[in-house]
Amino acid sequence: MAMNLFGRPALLVAAGLVLAFALGSAWLTPRGPVTTTHALATMAVALAVGLVVGAATGSRWALLLAPAAFVAVFELARMGSWGPTVDAPASAGMLHVLSFLMGRAPQWLLTVVPMLLGTLVGLALAPRFGVLVARPMGVGGWVAASALAIVVVAVAVVVARPATTAPILGTDGDVVPGSIAELTTAEIGGHEQALMIRGRSTDLPVLLHLAGGPGGTDIGAMRLDTGLEERFVVVTWDQRGSGKSYPAFGPAETLTLEQVVADTIELSEVLAARFGRERIYIAGQSWGTIPATLAAHRRPELYHALITTGQMVDIRETDLLFYDDTLVGARARRHRAGRAAGGDGSAAVRRARRHVPPHRRPRTLAQPVPGVRWPHRDDRDHLQARVQLHGPDRRHARARR
Q1: CA 138 to chain CA centroid, nearest Å
Q2: Under a CB-based contact definition with an 8 Å cutoff, are residues 349 and 359 in contact?
């Protein structure tokens, strides 16, 4: 028996599926899919939901209402979460609006586009299930479905394709014998964490590099200058919760300085065993200097040397210095705006004054903020005693063991 175009059973089925998909996505992936499996599963479920919605309703309104309902429910359900892919724009400025849109674009690409494709196919199949359709899908509908299918397949292929790093080539254009160039993972601290390993020869000394942050990744930056690869096997590590190791973020309570230092030591042991070394070199930049320094202090027998750039010494002092720089910039913008017709930069100054560090509710990482609380007093004393500052700017220092 054919259903009416907006029959209650069809609407209940369609609405229930969209609601369940939106709530399930907000619960399981509030910041969007973060692994290949998450992304492909999300696309498959979105396609299936669209297919059932289109076939059950037989209405072209489903092409608009189903994605709109999903986006609305998903955004409302994940309001308790925070992060660049979740937060509302801080202002109406172009940068904030672009950040808002770009943070959501991947989620929409993985959900809304497959849902639209599924809905179009469902509309085409609706008559076979006895569902009344106001107007059969014509040539335009099939063209749209074909275009969406190409996009969905292309996105799925890109997502499913394993990431790689370019091989190290000689002057003849061939791969250098004995070289290593790989993107891989290692189980560190109970989580798979991402590594980029590159070197002209596996016989070279091993150098472990810790990026700044917390939350920073240097996998891209380390490819800009490949000079180190000539002298070392360079291991660039995405620490838990950052870059390709983002899935290792949870549970958030484990993201502490103590855990990152433990991860650093464990990874150092893994690398030493893999490459048959008694010791390796360890390098840190900015935030990375803290776990690197503490790891070298606790396990000096693991390392030939510690190399740091932008050595962190006093985190609160660093925050205050950056805050002062921000306030100076805000005042400069206010001055310029005051001289321009119709402009007033006082809002920028007021915003800056409201956020004097230390922040009671930091939103960059879990409480407590890694690096603010030192697990051992002797670690803090050792770090401050070993680092020799030079110049008037306390943000830049050099440490060597």
Answers
A1: 41
A2: no
Annotated domain spans of the chain: 8-160, 165-401
Q: What's the length of the chain? A: 401
Q: Are the beta carbons of 118 and 54 closer than 8 angstroms?
A: yes
What is the mean predicted confidence (pLDDT) over 208-218? Answer: 89
- Give the whole-angstrom CA distance, residue 111 versus residue 115: 6
Confidence of residue 299 (pLDDT cuts 50, 70, 90): very high
Q: Is 1 exposed, middle or buried (0-12, 13-18, 19+ CB in 10 A)?
A: exposed
Average pLDDT, the chain: 80
Whether residue 396 is predicted with pLDDT greater than 50 in this model: the reply is no
Question: Which H or E element spans position 8?
Answer: helix 8-28
pTM beyond 0.85 = no
The band of 188, judged by pLDDT with boundaries at 50, 70 and 90, is very high
Q: Summarize pLDDT for 39-59 with one digit per residue, the tens.
A: 999 999 999 999 999 888 888
Is a pLDDT exceeding 50 seen at residue 159?
A: yes
C-alpha–C-alpha distance, residues 265 and 192, integer Å: 15
The CATH architecture annotation of domain 165-401 reads 3-Layer(aba) Sandwich (3.40)
Q: How many CB atoms lie within 10 A of CB 156?
A: 17
Chain-centre distance for alpha carbon 194: 12
In 3-state terms the chain splits into helix, strand, coil percentages (rounded to 5) of: 55, 10, 35
| CA 270 – CA 258 distance, rounded (Å) | 19
Q: Quote the CA–CA distance of 186 and 238 in Å, as a whole number.
A: 11
Report the largest interatomic distance among the alpha carbons of the chain, rounded to a whole angstrom: 84
CA distance 350 to 353: 5
